[in-house]
Amino acid sequence: MEQMRNLDVLDGDEGRMCVNTEWGAFGDDGALEDLRTNIDREIDAGSLNPGKQLFEKMISGMYMGELVRLILVKLARDQMVFQGKTTPELLTTGRFSTSYIYTIETDKDEEGLANADKVLRDLGLNPSAEDCKATRRVCQIVSTRAARLCAAALAAVLRQIRDNKAAERLRITIGADGSVYKTHPGFSRRLQKMVRRLVPDCDVRFLQSPCGSGKGAAMVTAVAYRLAAQQAERQRILDTLRLSREQLLEVKRRMTDGIVLGLSKQTHEQTSVKMLPTYVRSTPDGTENGDFLALDLGGSSFRVLLVRLRSGKRHKVDMHQKIYTIPQETMQGTGEELFDHIVQCIADFLEYMGMRGASLPLGFTFSFPCNQSKLDEGILLKWTKGFKASDCEGKDVVMLLKEAIQRKQEFDLNFVAVVNDTVGTMMTCGYEDPKCEVGLIVGTGTNACYMEEMHNVELVEGNEGLMCVNVEWGAFGDFGELDDFCTQFDRSVDDCSNYPGKQRYEKMISGMYLGEIVRNVLIDFTSKGLLFRGKMSERLKSRGIFETKFLAQIESDRLAMRQVRSILQHLGLTGSTCDDSVLVKEVCSVVARRAAQLCGAGLAAVVDRMRQNRNQNQLDITVGVDGTLYKTHPHFSSIMQETLQDLAPQCRVTFLKSEDGSGKGAALITAVACRGNNQGQH
To answer: Is residue 284 part of a domain?
Structure first.
């Protein structure tokens, strides 16, 4: 049993593995040349595999009898035995069986000599008493050398084990089998004696196997069967998280149905896909000009930005920003406390920029589902992403912010736009690529927006032109559309979330929840004895220990298993083995792949709808993307894009990563709106 850390041919460094030394081939590289005799070389030359298994040819029962025969032939030819005579039988390869050695070397001298006499006479010889003694001596020399060579090799193995364990004294049992070891009257005794002489600091016990090959094979088979059964159970569980192409096409179809229902005034309330009008009617054209203030609220941090746009200098946007944290108690306290905190952050930023008292056009990136009847109004439908501030849902967030500013009485702002981060992403990328008419976020949460034909947006008056629609697809599935795709792990994550039954699609895709899905799978595996040796650590029971960044790190192609294990240890899973690391990586891969495929299926529904709206056989479109999961996970983007290409083959989609869609995007929407106002378009 060798330490895994010493097996460079395998990935992993935890635990041990049984190593088959195949020591019969020892010496094939010339390492035994100074110990081999002419007799050894003669046996090798006449064998079926010359130059191979040289150590075995000096030790094993297959060759010991032949060694004795060749020595007797040489002695006879040298006139030292049998009066210099040989017989055809003595000269025949293989006629001196190794079993003869066992009978000749019996512990009783007289019996041994009598057996030697019989063996020699069967070979056509007429031996004297001295010939029988000489033959017995040759047998002893050959078998003793074999036992000692075997002991020397065994001593090397024992030293390796002792050094691995850094033990001053090694206590170990050796299981032994084989006809020579079991049948030869003195072999095992000589072997054991020499082992103890060569490694005196090892207490060695030899245990003879009664039926090693049969029973041992059965035991190995039983273990392999158990492991195979465990692997089959693991795969059965993971298969519930794997989606077929047919299932993904069904997700696309249901998303398409949801989009159609959400756009219609009559059926808007019958779908979880709310298709919220954003009142953003055009993308940037490069003529935007001026200084704009942008606020960005969408997670546990809040940003205030000053964005300077100069017409004619596209792609040259000057930005200054500060990031402020939002404490958990503020996220889940009262609405007044939350918006007072936001206003305090704005006041600090204006002071920091030396702009106290300045009045600037303001864009507010508010990354939560809002109903808008105009650009500068947003009625919060529901909190997501861990927010639960009271007295906010159903109210206009612009008004809540204005009231907080009035309470502060330090500055005033000119509110122009309430922006969803997805729309901001689309606008930021649209500033660089005019074909960008879709925004996608895959980070803490997930959502999409796109430019819809106005005549389809029944919630807003007017039929001309386009309007950006906030799909709010994170809520897809809240009406049961995804129930047949949800697993026990999804249901567990949903049950323990801040808002059970809500944002079902988001809970299967976004970075906020993927780690929890993985953790629930690992708990299930561990409880069934399929992982971590069935030992449930307290750390594994802790919600939120698997962050998105750990999933991304674990799935990195650059990481060896030992590094994956080190991440698990960092997470407090100290009892993990290399096999555990392999399985954890597979779980992460399956969960992330499903997320990317589901996202790709949803996006396929969006772009295919745009293609059909425009009656085009082939749609060329750019999707602006933002979000940590998309940007940092090593495989998410490629799997999502492959899925999209497969499910919407008539759409040629380019993906453009957004650089600060939430901040710059809010300023651009505000700038486009101001440009429109100046031109009398709104």
So the answer is: yes
Three-class DSSP category at 624: strand
How would you classify the pairing of strands 202-208 and 170-176?
parallel
359-376, pLDDT tens digit by residue? 888 899 888 888 888 999
Q: Is 303 a catalytic residue?
A: yes
Query: In sequence order, what DSSP letters do the residues of 367-384 get, joined into one string?
Result: -S-EE-SSTT--EE----
In the chain, the number of structural domains is 3
H helix or E strand, kind and range, residue 505? helix 504-509
The whole-chain average pLDDT of the chain stands at 91
Instruction: At 662, list the tokens.
Output: 């939430």
What are the pLDDT digits (tens) for 93-131?
Answer: 999 999 999 999 999 999 999 999 999 999 999 999 999
Q: Clarify whether residues 357 and 412 are in a common domain.
A: yes
pLDDT in tens, 473-521: 999 999 999 999 999 999 999 999 988 999 999 999 999 999 999 999 9
Nearest to 277 by CA among 475, 467, 473, 476: 467
The answer to whether position 466 is within a domain reads yes
Does the annotation count 213 as an active-site position? no
Please tell me the least confidently modeled range out of 76-90, 272-286, 429-443: 272-286
Task: Phi first, then psi: give them for residue 288, nearest 5 degrees.
Answer: -65, 140
pTM for this predicted structure: 0.73
Catalytic residue, candidates 190, 254, 303, 675: 303
Instruction: Say yes or no: 638 and 650 in one domain.
Output: yes
Q: What confidence score (pLDDT) does residue 314 get?
A: 55
d(CA 214, CA 565): 37
Which of 577, 600, 623 delimits the end of a domain?
600
Give one DSSP letter per residue of 416-453, joined into a string. Answer: EEEE-HHHHHHHHHHTT-TTEEEEEEESSSEEEEEEEE
Listed residues 600, 630, 651: the one ending a domain: 600
DSSP state of 49: S
- The one catalytic residue among 367, 510, 576, 581: 367
d(CA 649, CA 642): 10
Given the residues 44, 131, 421, 660, select the one marked as catalytic: 421
Q: Which helix (H) or strand (E) holds 250?
A: helix 245-263
Strands 290-297 and 361-366: parallel
d(CA 295, CA 304): 5
Of 24-33, 121-130, 537-546, which gets the smallest average pLDDT?
Answer: 537-546
What's the angle, vertex CA 665, arms to CA 384 and CA 415, rounded to 5? 80
Indicate whether 155 and 295 sit together in one domain: no
Is the model more confident about 384 or about 587? 587
626 contacts 593 by C-beta, under 8 angstroms: no
**For residues 613 and 452, is the Cβ–Cβ distance under 8 A?**
yes
Residue 647 carries which side chain, given as an amino acid letter?
L
β strands within 515-664, DSSP E: 619-626, 651-657
Please say whether the beta carbons of 140 and 99 come within 8 A: no
Q: Measured between alpha carbons, how far is 544 from 532 in angstroms, rounded to an integer?
A: 19
Query: H helices of 85-211, where?
Result: 98-104, 109-122, 129-165, 179-183, 187-198
Range of the domain at 278: 257-485+601-678
421 catalytically annotated: yes
Asked if residue 493 and residue 589 are part of one domain, the reply reads yes
Bridge partners (DSSP) of residue 531 are none
In the predicted structure, residue 595 carries a pLDDT above the cut 50: yes
Cα(308)–Cα(289) distance, integer angstroms = 8
Cβ 387 vs Cβ 341: under 8 Å: no
